[in-house]
Design a protein that fits this description.
This protein has helices at 2-30, 47-90, 95-107. It is mainly alpha-helical. It has one domain. Helix 2 packs antiparallel against helix 3. It is rod-shaped, with a radius of gyration of 26 Å. The two termini are 19 Å apart.
Length: 108
Amino acid sequence: MKKTYERIFIVLIIFIVIGILLRFMAPLLWGGYYGGYSNHMFGGTMFPIGMLGMGAFWLIVIVFVFGLINKESTDDKDTAIKTLKRRLSNGDITIDEYEALKERVRKE
């Protein structure tokens, strides 16, 4: 999970760098024309930063949701294994049954 956050951080840095480059390169690339927004908020040159910011926001939301889903699935597996250990210690199941059930839980 740590590598996922590192990748997200790198992608966000790339978005920021691209946004800053587009902010200052837009007048050179489009010759002062910004698609009808030339007299609106900073002369229309802020559009790349807002667009990239919104993309970064949704990227963070998606990763956060998938992180929660993944965490819940691993918590379920841990709970199932703890239950198996408790049943083994109570003598409800044998060691062979415990090993077989533990492998089955890990596969799911």
